[in-house]
Structures are given as structure tokens and as C-alpha cells.
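Appendix B. Extra example for self-study. Work through it before the problem class; the solution is given directly after the inputs so you can check yourself.
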Amino acid sequence: MEIEKENGDTFIHFLLGEDEYAIRILDVQEIITPLPITPVPGTPDSILGVVNLRGKIVPMMDLRRTLGLSPKPVGETSCFVIIQYRHWLMGVVVDRVSGVTDAGEVGVSQKRENGNEGIDRFVTGDANREEDEGSIQVLNVEKLVTDEYHEEIYR
Amino acid sequence: MLPGLVGAALLLLLGGWVLYWLSGSDLSAVYEEPALGIISFKWALSLFVVVCSLVVACLSIRMEQSVNRILSSVISQLSEGAEQVNASADQLSASSQELAQSSVEQAANLQQTTSSLEQISGQASRNAKSAGEAERAMLETRPWVAEGAMAMDRMNEAMEQIRHASQETSKIMKTIDEIASQLHLLALNASVEAARAGDAGKGFAVVAEEVRALAKRSADSARHTEKLIESSQQTSERGAHVVHEVAGYLKKIEENVARVNRHVIEIAAASGEQGEGIEQVSRYMQQLDGAVQENAVRSEGTAMAAQELSAQANDFMEIVRSLTGLAATEISQRGFSQRDIVRSDLADVSKLRDRKNGGRDWRRPVQSSLVGKSRHESKSENMSDSENGRLGSLLIPLDDDEDFNGF
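Solution. C-alpha cells for the complete assembly:
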């Protein structure tokens, strides 16, 4: 089933290890170079801590852990992608932002079940690209932010 | 004996004639008177004359006998001496000829040795020359090697500078890479902002996309350049390593060149000394050659003198033989044998020899004239036969008239 396709729907895609993931550009507030993360006690394991983004306190989510990937420390090329859903802000650590893609150019198909719980939960579909380039898995931001695991943070 | 008898007879004749003369004269009367009473003066005188004649005859016979004995002794001694002189002269001649021959052989050998020495001397001088040239070449090479070592040091410095510059460039490239990645982020944020702006931000989104592509390109280029710089850095490091190796080899070459130089200098000096030594030996050999040639000439002269002496001794023997013939009859009558006389006193013989030589040693003028001649002749290498003959005549001053007059 084709997902609803907005006019001018554009994705920002990024790398986590070998895999490439995408987020709708309208869900992204900004992309920043890594800032110092302050750990917060009593938070779930998937929350690394908080950062101070120009006076706003933004929680940082370990997307690797959430998606069930192997952990990796923040590197030179790492970026913080600040996601905005309604009035909530949340940052995710990505290895590298690889580019911006117009959804008109690539069709986004129904996601494939691959047995990974995290991916099955948050990935909404695959953005088809040229052959041999690998697929881009589109993440469901609403679910990421409002997941029952994190509800308590934003309450 | 014969002259004694003849003398006695002559005296008897004289006595007879005196008697006859006295009997025929006017004074015979005076003499016929008996003076002594028994016999007259005339008879007394006659008796005296007869007695005198007999006494004279006896004396003359006695004298002749003793003279003959002395003469026989002298003749036999002379004969013995002449034989000895002849034998000695023969021996002297033979040994002189041998000496002359061996001297000539020696001279030939010496000439060969001298020519060999000259060859060796030539080789030694060539060696010395080559060693000198090698020494010069080594001396020229030494500063070049040092220059090479210095050039290697400079090259090492240059390599170090290249490496330093590469490091600096590498840092700059890192900065460029960082700038490119920040630009990339900026472009992404611009894209986000453009998307937020909706339709109004569409143009801006395009610009942001372009900027993003540019940032990506510059990042790629920066990475590429960095890789290149890294490889050139590695190459320059390898080059620096090679420079170090070459410098080490050059140092070894320098040391060896110095060593070779030392040896070549030693060889040159030794060759020079060798040449001088050979030159000296050659000079000595030439002197020796001259002496040997002189010896040869002298011994030839001596041989000739000995032959001449032998001939003279033969002549001497002839004269002695004729003398023996004269005295032979008397000796045979009186039963004298030559052997008895030969066993007489040797002192007499030596005295006789001294007398024969007239108190002077005839060898002295001979030798002095020979030496004078040889010295004069030694300047020329070989003597011609005519010259030898002339020398021979000069060598023998003996003259028949002079030396055998006494006999």
C-alpha cells in the first residue's frame, strides 16, 4: 500500500552504521554538531541525557539502542538531528547526515518485515532508490517521540 | 888441461930459445965460467927455466880443473832454473788464459744482468708513474666524495622540509575538511528552513541543495588531497630514509677512498724508492762490468806476457845447452855428472838469479806498463788484435842483448 504522499514531501536521510534511514524534513527542526550531553539519572536506558540547545533543554535519544542496533560512541562525523513533533523537541545521534531527497524522485513503499522489533515498530516504509544502492527506511517520528516508553518524559 | 900443456910447451920453447940465444952471444965466455963452482951459470939458468916451465904447466893444469868444475856447476844450475822458469811461465800462461776466458764470460753475464736491470728499472718507473697518477685521481676524488656527502646532507634537509610542509598542508586540509562538513550541515539546515517556508522557500531550497553539493565536493576534494599529501609524505619519508642510507654509503666510500689514497701514496713512494735502488744497482753493475772488462784485458795481457816469458825461457835453455856442449868433454873426462851439481846449495842459485837479473826486478816495469796501458784501454770496450800485439811487445822489455850478455 502506498503511503500518503504530500506535495513536496522531502526527506532528510542519515546513516547508522551501514544502514540508511530517513525522516520527513518537516519533522526536523535543525541539524547540529555534537554538543556535550549531560546524563540524567532515573531515565530509561534509551535516553542518553540532555543537551543545552541555545537555552532549551533537549533530551537526546540513543536511536541505535531504540532500533536494536549495536551501540557506538559519538564520533567526528556524528551529528545531532533535533526532531520537532508538535511542541516536543528530541535529539537523536546519527553517524552522518547523507543528504536530502525529494520523495517525488523515489517511491516510498510499504515497509518490509525484517523481524527486528525496533525497526518493525518505527519504520513506516522503504524509500526505493536505484538498484544496488540499498534501501532507505523511513522512520515514523510520531511513534518515536510519543512511544509509550517515553511518554512519561514529555508528560 | 890442453891450455896448460900448451903453456908448458911454450915455456919450454921459450927456455930453449933463451939457451940458444945465450950460447950464441959474445958474453958466453963470462957465463961459461963456473960461478958456483959445480955448474956454470949457463946450465943453472937453463935448469931454472925448465923448472919454472914445469911449475907453470902444473899450475895451469890445476887452475883449468877448478874453473871447469865451477863452470859445470853454474851450467847445471842455470839449466835447472831455466826449466823451472819455463814450467812456471807455462802455468802462468794457462791460468791467465783461463782467467781471461772466465772474465769474458763474466762480462757477458754482467751485460745480460745489466740489461735485465734496465728493464726492471723501466717497469719500476712505470709503476711509480701509474701510482702517482692513481694518487692524483684519488686526491681529486676525495673532495667529490665529501661534496657528495654534503649534498646528501642538504638533500636530507630538503626532504625534512618537504615532510614538514606536507604535515602543515595536511593540517590545513583537515581544517578545510571540517569547514566542508560544517558547510554541509549549514546547507542541510538551510534545506530544513526552506522546507519550513513552504512554497516561498522553494528557491532557497534549491540554493541550499547547491551549497550542500558544493560542500560535499569540497569535502571530497579535501579528502582526496589529504590522501595525496599523505602518500607524498610517506614518499618523502622513504626518500629521507634512502638519503640516510646513501649518506652512510658515501661515508663508507669516503673512508675507503681515504684508505685507498693512503695505500696509493705508499705504493708511489715505494715505487720511487725501488726505482732509485734499481738505478743504484744498475750503476754498480756498470762499474762491475767495467772492472771485469779491465780484468779480461789484463789477464789477456798477462797470458801473452807469460807466453813471451816461456819463449824467452826456451831461448835461455838453448843457450844453456850450447854452453853445456862446450864444457861437455871436460866434464865427461873428469866424471862429473849434472845431477851431483844440481844438488848444490840453493842459496847459490838465488844469488845467481839476483845476479842474472842485474839486481832489478824486471816484473815491476812490465806490470806498471800493463796497468798504465789497461787503464788507458779500459775506456774502449774491446781491444783489437793489433793493439794486443802492441801491448804484448810493451809488456816484455826483455832484450836478448841486454839480459843474456853476462853469459
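Self-check: Chain B has nine helices and no strands. If your reasoning did not lead you there, revisit section 3.
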